[in-house]
């Protein structure tokens, strides 16, 4: 029981950390876009750094948000046929979905490893390495794998909703 409590605490800490990170990313994107809008319409000057930084922050925002959505099981799903199926078939559909998600996440991780081995460019203005930009994908994949593993455990224990 103690291990279960500590794993729930770790998951709660992970979710809280992700929520704070996503919130800070939203603030960063809003600041960059607002600075660029102010510069363009009031000062008649466009900040190149603001557009580039807002793009980087937005990519991380979307992918961390997707990982957080996976952990919270808040993704959009079409469940019409699964809901109409008998109970044993529903469990099979759920297992199939979990298997597909595992395959996609593993492909993302292997693809990132291969992509990273030959990637050395940086963003034009801020010189942020593209590897930093694209590393949001494996982070999202790992978060999704964690969420998927939790869903699999719940399903196999029979506590999945």
Automatic annotation (TrEMBL):
Complex formation: The complex comprises the extracytoplasmic solute receptor protein and the two transmembrane proteins.
Pfam families noted in UniProt: DctQ
- The answer to keyword Acetylation applying to this record is no
Task: Please name the taxonomic classification of the source.
Answer: Bacteria, Pseudomonadati, Pseudomonadota, Gammaproteobacteria, Oceanospirillales
Q: Which organism is it from?
A: Modicisalibacter tunisiensis
Where is it chiefly localized?
A: membrane
- Record-linked InterPro entries: DctQ, TRAP_DctQ
Cite the entry's keywords alphabetically: Cell inner membrane, Cell membrane, Membrane, Transmembrane, Transmembrane helix, Transport
User: So what family is this one in?
Assistant: Belongs to the TRAP transporter small permease family.
Where is it localised? Cell inner membrane
**Record PANTHER family:** 2,3-DIKETO-L-GULONATE TRAP TRANSPORTER SMALL PERMEASE PROTEIN YIAM
Q: What is this protein called?
A: TRAP transporter small permease protein
Q: How does it sit in the membrane?
A: Multi-pass membrane protein
Described purpose of this protein according to its UniProt entry: Part of the tripartite ATP-independent periplasmic (TRAP) transport system.
According to the entry, every stretch annotated as the Tripartite ATP-independent periplasmic transporters DctQ component domain falls at: 30-157
**Sequence intervals crossing the membrane:** 20-41, 53-71, 92-112, 132-153
């Amino acid at each position: 029981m103690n291990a279960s409590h500590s794993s729930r605490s770790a998951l709660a800490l992970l979710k809280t950390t992700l929520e704070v990170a996503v919130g800070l990313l939203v603030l960063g994107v809003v600041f960059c876009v607002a600075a660029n809008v102010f510069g363009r319409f009031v000062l008649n000057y466009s900040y190149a750094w603001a557009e580039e930084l807002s793009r980087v922050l937005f990519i991380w925002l979307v992918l961390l948000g997707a990982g957080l959505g996976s952990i919270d099981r808040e993704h959009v799903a079409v469940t019409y046929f699964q809901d109409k199926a008998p109970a044993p078939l529903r469990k099979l559909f759920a297992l199939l979905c979990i298997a597909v998600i595992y395959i996609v996440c593993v492909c993302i991780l292997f693809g990132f490893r291969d992509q990273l081995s030959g990637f050395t460019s940086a963003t034009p203005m801020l010189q942020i390495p593209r590897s930093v930009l694209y590393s949001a994908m494996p982070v999202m994949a790992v978060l999704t794998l964690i969420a998927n593993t939790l869903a699999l455990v719940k399903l196999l224990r029979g506590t999945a909703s």
